[in-house]
Specification:
Number of strands: 0
Structural class: mainly alpha
Distance between the termini: 16 Å
Radius of gyration: 19 Å
Low-confidence stretches: 293-304
Membrane topology: Multi-pass membrane protein
Family: Belongs to the EamA transporter family.
Protein name: DMT family transporter
Mean pLDDT: 86
Keywords: Cell membrane, Membrane, Transmembrane, Transmembrane helix
Number of domains: 1
Helix content: over 70%
Strand content: under 5%
Pfam families: EamA (PF00892)
């Protein structure tokens, strides 16, 4: 069991490591694609990839379980990314980065209410506050202020709540006993289904010329296969193994990964404020992770 927990921590870190670098690919693709085009392409690629890896249809035993899959697809695939991207058009990226990072705290609240887990201890709360201080230092480094934009900030808050809901739903889905690739794929299906109406409302107008660039091709491949197909499977595995709260605190690492990626790939300068912020985030993560283990509901073993 201990070795499985270690694997859970490794998959959590690897998932966040990839998600923390996706902003570079997205930034490149936004020159030729709209946000909704990128989302639709990446999750379609992920959906197809999961079929190729595990071509077995999921037979849902209880039709009511489809409600959880549909809710997870709506929250984690459609609403979270749309709200986050739209928020970026109204407010600063630093604002969104700070606000979305409250998701682990919201997740802890949801797990207490809906999964009947124990309330997070004082170490978790202190770790959260320390990590948020570090995230604020990194996000606001070089910015004059935390800009007040009601629409953008509200959308970012909603995005953090939605991701917490998604993680909680993933934990519930893990108790159904299905193969993790099948459950992720079905979640993608519902997410894509809910995203279709957005394509008619938002700017969705693909052209062949957009795919002719080798740079665009490889960035889409990275988002579709790495950040979507692989990462959503590893995130689900981590949630099932470690619990929804312990997995969610790894979200604190995203600003750290983003800073490191910016320095190594984009050659952006690193400041002492950023270094201090990273140190605080790592300390907060350690405190949150070393808190008492959450009580997860008993779940049947999932075949791998």
């Amino acid at each position: 069991m201990k070795s499985k927990n270690i694997i859970g921590h490794i998959t959590s870190f690897l998932t966040i490591f990839i998600w923390g670098t996706t902003f570079i690919s997205t930034k490149v693709l936004l020159q030729d694609f709209t946000p909704v085009e990128i989302l639709m392409i990446r999750f379609l690629m992920g959906y197809i990839a999961l079929w190729l890896v595990f071509p077995h249809h999921l037979k849902v035993i209880n039709p009511k379980q489809n409600i959880y899959f549909a809710a997870a697809g709506l929250c984690g695939i459609t609403l979270y990314y749309l709200f986050e991207n739209i928020a970026l058009t109204y407010t600063l990226a630093s604002n969104v980065g700070i606000i979305v990072s409250i998701s682990p705290f919201v997740t802890a609240i949801f797990s207490c209410i809906f999964l009947k887990d124990k309330r997070p201890g004082i170490r978790f709360i202190i770790g959260f506050l320390i990590a948020m201080t570090g995230i604020c230092l990194i996000s606001l480094n070089g910015s004059k202020s935390f800009a007040i934009s009601p629409i953008g900030n509200i959308l970012a808050i909603l995005a953090s709540i939605i991701w917490a809901a998604y993680s909680t739903l993933v934990k519930k889905i893990s108790t159904f006993g299905y193969h993790i690739i099948q459950t992720t794929r079905l979640t993608f299906f519902y997410g894509i289904l809910f995203m279709l109406p957005c394509c008619f409302v938002l700017d969705f107008n693909l052209h062949v010329s957009q795919f002719m660039s080798i740079t665009n091709f490889f960035n889409l491949l990275f988002l579709g296969l790495g950040a979507s197909a692989i990462c959503f499977v590893t995130w689900s595995f981590s949630v099932k193994t470690l619990g929804v709260v312990k997995t969610s605190v790894y979200i604190y690492m995203i600003p750290v990964i983003s800073v490191i990626a910016s320095v190594l790939i984009l050659r952006e300068p690193v400041t002492l404020v950023s270094v201090f912020g990273i140190a605080l985030i790592l300390l907060g993560l350690f405190l949150s992770e070393s808190s008492k283990k959450e009580t997860a509901p008993n779940s049947p073993q999932t075949s791998w």
